[in-house]
Amino acid sequence: MDKALIPEGVKRCPLPVFGLWMLVLFAVIAWGVYAGLTVLIKGLHVTGLNNYFGFGLYICVDLGIIALGAGAFFSGFMYYGLSRFFPQLKELHKIINLAVIVGFCCYTGALLVLLLEIGQPLRGWFGYWHANVHSMLTEVIFCISCYAIVLVIEFVPIILENRKLDAVKPLHIFGHNLHEIMAIFAMTGTFLSFFHQGSLGGVPGVMFARPFAYREGFFVWPWTFFLFTLSAMACGPAFTALICRLMEKVTRKQLVDRSVYELIGKIEGVLLLIYLILKGLDTLYWALDTAPGFGLKLSDFYKEPYGMWLLVAELGICGVIPVILLLTPQARKVNGLLFLAFFLDCAGIVINRFAMTVEALAIPVMPFDQWAVYIPTWAEWAPCIAMLAYGAVIVSLSYRYLPIFPRERELNP
Amino acid sequence: MSLGRRAFLQFVGGAIGGTLLTPIPWKLADDSAIWTQNWSWRPSPERGEITETTGTCLLCPGGCGIQARLVNGHRAIYVKGNPDHAVSRGGLCPVGAAGLQYLYAPYRITQPLKQTGKRGDPQGFQPIAWNEALKIVADKLAAVRKKGLPHTVACITGQDRSSVTDLWKQFFAAYGSPNLYTMPRHSDSTRLAVALATGYDADLGFHLEKATYVLNFGAPLLEGWAAPVRIQQIFSRWQTEQPGLPKTELVHVESRCSLTASKADRWIACKPGTEAALALGIAHVLIREKLYDAAFVSEKVFGFEDWTDAAGALRKGFKALVLAKYSPKDVAAVTGVDAQVIQELARELARQKNAVVLWGQSSDTPNNLYHDLAFLALNALIGALSDKAMVSLVPSQPWQALPEPAMDLEAFKGLGQKPLGQPTSVPKTKVRPNTLHAFLNALANGEEYPIELLFVHEANPAYGLSENTLAVQALQKAGMVVSFASYLDETAAYADLILPNHNAFERLDDVIGLPGAPFAFYAVATPILKPHYDTKSTGDVVLGLAKTLGGTVAQSLPWKNYEEVLKLRAAKIAEGATGLLVDATFDPASVEPGVSLRANFKKAADVWKKLTAGSCWVEAPQALDACTTPSGRFELACQGLLASVSTNAGDELFMAHYKPLPPSGNAGELPLLLTTYRSLSLAPGYVPNAPFMNKLLPDDLLLKQDVFVEVHPETARKLGLRHKAKAVLKTPLGEAPVRVRVAPTVPADVVALPEGLGHTAYDEYVQGKGVNANSLVEVHLDPVTGLGTVWATRAQLRLA
Amino acid sequence: MVIDLDKCTGCGACAVACQQENNVSFRPDESDKLRTIAWMTLYRLDNGKDYPEHREAMLPRPCMQCDSPHHSPCTFVCPVNATVRDEHTGIVDHIAVRCIGCRYCMVACPYHARSFNWWDPKWPKTMEAMLSPEVSPRMRGVVEKCTFCHHRLNRARDRARINGEDPDGVVYTPACAEACPTGAITFGNLRDPHSDVARLAKDPRAFRILEKLHTEPKVYYLSSDQWIHKQSDNDLS
């Protein structure tokens, strides 16, 4: 049975090994589910959240994972959209399936964690019913759930390519038709993603009474709106590439042409550079104009444990260094440096999301108020780690049973 | 038909699609949300008609008027100040505002209880019927009296301003025991000082409404001193600019940066416990620079100049002693206050027409007699006791309390016994010295005579008495302990029998006199709702016991019930035909001592009606024209002390002087001084902190179960203690775990511990939080009055 | 609302009365100040000087009912319209039964005026009798905050309607102002130029907290101490 499901002409590890791997992942997921149930049944007091840190690890991980999952929409956008103008982007079809799968994992995982984060998950749908159109979170709720549906639709034809399923005629036709119209979904997804990545950035950016997070902006959108979209584009494909590389390491096989990595490296390098320049300008404007307008200096925002090192790490170590590496052709040629750059890129964006959610809340706004420190508990770590395990399960299953890498057979004769 | 896999998948797919098209998922989503909005484990308060009732808060001696909102007449949901009340004018303190948390406390005693196990065993209490319980007490009383030992019955009451206390007095007189005590208060020592200086049995009233300058030596004005809400309102008045009137200046002397110190116009930081020396230093400057009220001193004061005692010996007067011993330079060395500042203060004080000197300590405990006399003397020097009457004497009973008790021989014999443990040096004045510490000491150590029966009424000495372990030891030694507690507190836990009183909001009671107020005061506290447990008013219980005992005891307490006693009060007021029944329009500044207010009432029934509706009766204090001292004057040199001090005593021992009682312990081992402080958001009295009040406590005062002591950064550095560090506080009385709040609120080498924490009784919302300050402070028995005084305790603080 | 810090003695009667009036729940341990539910919080300010120049003051902080144009910081971000500002009365209300507990409003509020129900609120059985039927107890997982005793306004308006008076002209007092023993809290209609609050808000001693954020709080403070003024906003010299 297992053999029959595995795509033709590729080698997969023996079923028991795969089973063991699944078991490990399911154990982690079970731990996460247990933590999740604890939160749902006992209440959010089992977390490290409090009245000062209304947002914590859950939100931070959600924001981070959604940024990293942006590979799906941006690769799709490049492949289905931009490749008409830039034929070299056609290369991306070698990794586009993986990008969709990673995106699917990230978004569905994030939605699950989001359910834990809100105090009344059973009222979660009030976001649609009693929507406040001014709230960035409303936009987030709408776009993320819509985009998750789009990702499901994008994932379906990949599933249908499974050998057994493909053999079913109606499914084959259905899948084929879906493929034909995938560009439309990719474009819809892109549209939605531009918005919700942006509105995630808007979440901190619109808080006009929180000097650390607040940004001025364009029309109703604060600068963070655009920066978040841009930074997501600058790290999403990098994250896909990292996952791909990880799979190559685990399977000890080459799954995509190296040229794909280099292409992604070049694209990400350029995007990250643009992002960094804009982010730098934004930070300067904020530090020199916005914040002083609120009576605060840059140094007022950074105090241990959330010290200036965060800024250095975010923009310097995880910003400037990867840009240099990615834009240097020689460095791109060296695997170690290329993937280090991808990793730093992703880490920098996650630090940014951390700073905009958690650190932003540590800073006392009232002068007589106190600095607060947030320490997540196991009940927060477990679901987040389980979400990663969930992603690993999906990716593993997909890899084993679906022909997600079109070049795999040729690269591994 | 067999269901193939494909068919199954099709079925599942179809089912999901189909279900989504039906209303089921949407209805379920809606229902589940509605469910979260109506969780059954969330209480839903009963609705109904909301009414308001009026009463008087009995949770402290402040006598505030309150109004309660009731649902369907039986469920109190909110307490607020009565805006028409003469004293509190709608204001409330946090204890009063949280009052319902006592009324509905889970630790209320719901019915009479009898200890069936060992004394102190919380599990040993068993319900008992009222008649059985009362019979046990009555039998015991009868038996003790039959044995001719009525003086071995004792009572500790915490309610010293209610008619129940008068019933106890009446009962103890008729029954024949001198061992009736109230919980210690600062007024215990001031009343003795006043009696020695003027011959009157009176409380001090301060005309803060009229004052333009208040020099306050350590009284925690804003932390719950005297009648807290009255003081809060006076403070508010001081802060309000009134056109045409000079702003009242508050100068506060204290070692700790309390809220009063922070809020005062000027804070003079002195070394702990040296306030009296500063007062005498100021007196020195007043005398030296002839700034004192010479007319008052020469006409009305005795002992300012040198004098001759009854034995004909020439003795130095106040002037000579103060000039000799309290020069600003000497005082500066003692107090740490600049000599320059002392002079400045004296001149300022003298310049003001309506100046008044207040004094007190953070804890409401008796003070060193000589120190009380020093502050009284300073008031006399600035003429505050003259016709200006910035300080007046308010008789503790505005009328004759109750008819003379009928006393049989047994009663005379018993009452004539020396109160247990009372030292012989105690000055003989009209004021009965409230030597509770000496009593408990003797009882705990089995000295003099045993106590067969001990009543504890509205008092919690096992927690609230300074050196509370003494009370615990004494309770264990008493033959039988009967408590009237409403709550299962630390003391009630040691009772053999608990006859629960109605809660403060449920009972009919009264308030006689307001601490610190310059007028006589009477208010009736009407219950805001019916008692909801099987409790009985202690007044009724005392009357019932008297009736059961029969004879002269029953004759002395002939009233049918406690309400009748209170109505008698109303009748007395009507009969006296002086004083006013007042509401919020009452201005205390209009009251002149010795000038009776023209009554605005006639019939007793009217008086009762108005009193029960929230009106208060007020009357002017007496004038200080004829002191009943041996000299007939205000005595700076108290001749009443002749009997208490030896004949060859130094001249100083007759008058105010600075003499702190040395704290015990070795200064090397215990290098710090422990002082305690109060806060209005911490109930230090008979009731514990309500859960609502616990919310007010900052996390550098109470963190989880740890209390914080305040330590100066310098001291903390020396001891290697960081902010919030866990430490052990040690005094000669014991050790306790604490945490450290490093703050420059106290001088170096001083540790400040808040009062009102560290309960061991009640429920999980109260118990085990912090340390009971009373268990660590040291009591010094005043060598003259025998009262237990507290000022500072040697201490050590070390890293835990 | 105007709070006179010169008169405030930090006794906490306001906060206690508020808890009693609004069925605010409490727990055996209330020392975790970051998780406690308090509509009116007392902050302790100090002048930062050493003994004996040290001074402390208490600052009671209700909800500021921010009047910033269009939206308060919190109402702007609520995804489900659970917290809204009544533009007629200016009161920012919070509907607990609509709240989904996302805590975005808490994050957006610089005054920490909002608390989350981290636990199921639970009263000792006997104390359920003191719960007011006028304010529903909240459930776990939702946010709550000071409403300027909005239900009292509604009560006053209902009474006015019954008596045939203009419901817009009613005056009422929230629990905190009612309880304050020093009369430090004055409550009224800021829009009415003749009201006490409007007059006091123009007092030279008046300030608001964090004016630079342009949240336009409707709670004014009065103090004659410069060191307290300096702590009203960041970087005041």
From TrEMBL, chain A:
- Write out the transmembrane intervals: 20-41, 53-74, 95-116, 136-160, 181-200, 220-246, 267-288, 308-327, 334-355, 375-399
**Its GO CC terms?**
plasma membrane
Key word Ligase present: no
* Keywords per UniProt: Membrane, Transmembrane, Transmembrane helix
Q: In which domain of life is the source organism classified? A: Bacteria
This chain's protein is named Prokaryotic molybdopterin-containing oxidoreductase family, membrane subunit
TrEMBL record, chain B:
Q: Which domain of life is it from?
A: Bacteria
Start and end residues of each 4Fe-4S Mo/W bis-MGD-type domain:
50-107
- Show the InterPro entries listed in the entry: Asp_de-COase-like_dom_sf, MoPterin_dinucl-bd_dom, Mopterin_OxRdtase, Mopterin_OxRdtase_4Fe-4S_dom, Prok_Mopterin_Oxidored, TAT_signal
> Any idea which UniProt keywords this protein has?
4Fe-4S, Iron, Iron-sulfur, Metal-binding, Molybdenum, Oxidoreductase, Signal
Span of the secretion signal?
none
**Presence of keyword DNA damage:** no
User: Which family does the record claim for this protein?
Assistant: Belongs to the prokaryotic molybdopterin-containing oxidoreductase family.
GO molecular function terms here?
4 iron, 4 sulfur cluster binding; metal ion binding; molybdopterin cofactor binding; oxidoreductase activity
The identity of this protein, by name, is: Anaerobic selenocysteine-containing dehydrogenase
From TrEMBL, chain C:
Pfam families recorded? Fer4, Fer4_11
Q: Would you say which domain of life the source belongs to?
A: Bacteria
Any one Gene Ontology molecular-function term assigned to this protein's record: 4 iron, 4 sulfur cluster binding
- Alphabetic keyword roster: 4Fe-4S, Iron, Iron-sulfur, Metal-binding
InterPro entries listed in its UniProt record: 4Fe4S_Fe-S-bd, 4Fe4S_Fe_S_CS, ET_IronSulfur_Cluster-Binding, Menaquinone_reductase_QrcC
| Domain 4Fe-4S ferredoxin-type: start-end pairs | 1-29, 88-119
Please report the name of this protein according to its UniProt entry.
Prokaryotic molybdopterin-containing oxidoreductase family, iron-sulfur binding subunit
**Species the sequence originates in:** Desulfacinum infernum DSM 9756
